[in-house]
## 1
Amino acid sequence: MRSFAFSSAENIEQAVSAQSDNAGEGAYIAGGTTLIDLVKLDVMRPAQVIDLNGLPLKEVEQLDDGRLRIGALVSNTDLAHHPLVTEHYPLLSQALLSGASTQLRNMATTAGNIMQRTRCPYFRDVAAACNKREPGSGCDALEGVNRMHALLGTSEHCIATHPSDMCVAMAALGATLTLEGPNGSREIAFGDFHRLPMDRPDLEHELEPDELITHITLDTPVVGGGSHYIKLRDRASYEFALASAAAVVAIEDGVIRDARLALGGVATKPWHAVEAEQALTGQPASNESFEEAAEIALAEAVSREHNAFKAPLARQAIVRALKHATQAAMNS
Ligand SMILES: Cc1cc2nc3c(=O)[nH]c(=O)nc-3n(C[C@H](O)[C@H](O)[C@H](O)COP(=O)(O)OP(=O)(O)OC[C@H]3O[C@@H](n4cnc5c(N)ncnc54)[C@H](O)[C@@H]3O)c2cc1C
Ligand code: SF4
């Protein structure tokens, strides 16, 4: 492990200016569950580590317009069990509790989860070729062991998945990120935050090197909506998704009035299945409609040697998530 300077920010301005002073070569640390691993593996090499834990960003509050504002440092555990989340956004709670382990969720923060890096084994191995870690070096996953890799949003430069469960729920629910930089704050829609790899897989998101995520604000909940998160994986806990689906539906007289759908484990970013949502709206809440939506969601899937099995898996996840969400809507 390389040595680095360490500082603790006492307020948001200090955190931002510490990054500016480092010309973006520093790294914020929140829970440390991604960063420390990657520093030990020599994948991330920050000149300075800036501790955020003293910042006043640990609150969850309902805004006057009904949206929910989450501080960047709220832990995954506190968020999953917060009464406003379990009551109004059970999908988010379910997704969070399907991730990692209790100990990791106690440390992991909301912003850290959004910023977590891919679990592609070649990214984490400095001896391998990886365009994300070392731009222009190639991608060993393309012809390598790519069983865990993505089908949607890939490019010939990178096929790594975004590993988060929480982000899949946020993609379905709709959210806005608040970013603080040297010139003040700005907002960005959650769906626009993560980038597709295209020819620059190293550029993963829209955060500038000297910006800080301060809050995540969830859209108002879908009125009368039922929801469900399903995660399919190699073992029942402490494992990343092979395929996951987050669904919210509102039903009126047996017809889908509103549908939200997002996928995880199969895409290079938290995947908002917009066309499938549109196809569901106005259709009967039936198996046929759900299967049709699943076909649409995976229509652009491109598989590699070892990951073709993920497409039928993701379709099943979608159908099951929609069925359970419909049941929840009927019972609400
Ligand atoms: C063994 C293991 C299993 C896991 N399983 C799962 C799983 O099943 N599902 C899942 O979703 N996740 C899983 N994770 C990932 C885990 O959820 C993330 O590591 C965690 O959410 C990261 O949060 P953190 O606060 O620890 O981030 P940190 O490690 O502190 O930071 C991560 C990155 O975010 C940046 N950052 C942190 N806060 C901010 C901020 N406010 N503004 C800007 N940048 C910031 C840091 O600079 C760093 O680059 C697993 C992790 C491990 C180690
Ligand atoms: S899939 Fe992406 S992260 Fe994995 S080796 Fe290729 S470029 Fe690197």
## 2
Amino acid sequence: MRPDPIQRLDTTLFWDACERGEFVAQKCEPCNKLWHPPRPMCPSCHSLEKSTQPLSGKAKVLSWVRQVRPASYGFKESPIVILVELEEGLRMVSNLVGDEPPIIGDAVEVDFEKTMGGKAVPVFKKVAT
Ligand SMILES: [Zn+2]
């Protein structure tokens, strides 16, 4: 089973949204910049005025890797780790659903998987083409 996410004061909004099946990022009110992972201050203008914006969940694969030995903690077989670029321009590291390695540039979309403590984390699945 997948380990729970490590929650901190600044990241709780993201993980709580995942539990509701929502995929979000923080947005700076003064300069409209989106960022991920969550943090208290806009990385561009350092404003503390922020809101939460829903994301489309659509992305493309920029890179991937699969750990061979030892298997990742909590998994029988290590998942495929992917770096994706979201439609909104943000990049994030996640897992690809399934056993089939991606091709760089593959279209993927977000999904959520349960963790051992009943939380949820975002993962990505290939979009049928
Ligand atoms: Zn800003």
## 3
Amino acid sequence: MPKVQIKHLTKIFGKRQKAALKMVHEGKGKNEIFEKTGSTVGVYDMNLEVNEGEIFVIMGLSGSGKSTLIRMLNRLYEPTSGDVIVDDINVTKADKKQLLEVRRKKMSMVFQNFGLLPNRTILENTEFGLEIQGVPAAERRERAEKALKNSKLISFKDQYPSQLSGGMQQRVGLSRALTNNPDILLMDEAFSALDPLVRREMQDELLDLQASVKKTIIFITHDLNEALRLGDRIAIMKDGFLQQTGTGEEILTNPANDYVKSFVEDVDRSKVLNAETIMVPGLTVNAEADGPNVALHRMSEEEVSGLVATDASRKFMGYITSDAAVKARRDKLPLTDVVSDMPTVKPDTLVADILNIIYDAHTPVAVVDDDNRMLGIIIRGAVIEALAQTDEGEGQENE
Ligand SMILES: Nc1ncnc2c1ncn2[C@@H]1O[C@H](COP(=O)(O)OP(=O)(O)OP(=O)(O)O)[C@@H](O)[C@H]1O
Ligand SMILES: [Mg+2]
């Protein structure tokens, strides 16, 4: 069963909802409806299912209804019609007591502007959510401290928000949302106010968090690159209407309509493709166990001018060129003495970033994991090919 089910969910703002709905049915646009009725279509007839443990991204331009949708999930906004079902609880039909329970145990919200209170310390801010839920002082302090410890913020607990950078403040916002250990995190443009580097760090942290604690995350952004990076699945909205739901790959390769197509056309593929997608298996030599003759033999067999050197435990060491191997044979040196530098990247390094590295490099680039194990290599041609495919793709569309 899906974790969250959204069924025919609609929100009309304003007094003349019936008239507005009638105009929606007649296919009238949002602006016309507002002019005639003074009511605004926030979200119209949304149907979605979010699975347990996935990061589900909601995208769309400003005013498309993303915040309205996410706020109906915990009934910060009361839906006009439709249902939100979380596990087996129909949130839209829940009484006060049930709703409180859902907000306490099931869902937490992380806001864009961090939502921190300026005159409260980091610790006081972190326990704020528990405080309004009526959790006793000693318990909420303990839980807040634990959450801060987990996110390595505990040493800042007595500081005030203004003393922290934007990234740190958002970490506090995230910690606060995690104090009640919710199943579901609702994140509304949580990283949008951060500068690009910090933003990327926060995205990494979110992916780590997701991998370790398996929350279900509903994440709003209007940045397509962020959506592609984080989302297991993505939904695209326009003027309150759902346009398409799918994986990033599905949406890029198979946009449901012209709107989605033009929406995703702007993506720079060099910012989407990463090392993992363009690497090839690398030929290696065990520099600790093998000698120069083995290396030279392999190079001539495989018709390559160099090999990636690893140690006996298959950890990455560097590169051995044929010249270096010849020198080792002549001077009776072990291969470990003739290993040269080779640039490395991580599997998720974007092609855009690899481009700069590979232009200066005299060797291929090695892709290594966090334990320094060799996963593959990237040759210059592959990078150029990956980028060229974009242009080719676009060219074909124009024909
Ligand atoms: N409280 C409200 N009262 C009246 N209209 C509202 C209210 N909240 C949102 N709206 C309207 O509903 C529509 C959807 O707004 P919403 O805030 O959900 O968009 P959004 O996709 O989150 O945009 P943004 O990217 O700017 O945050 C907009 O036309 C907005 O003006
Ligand atoms: Mg919004």
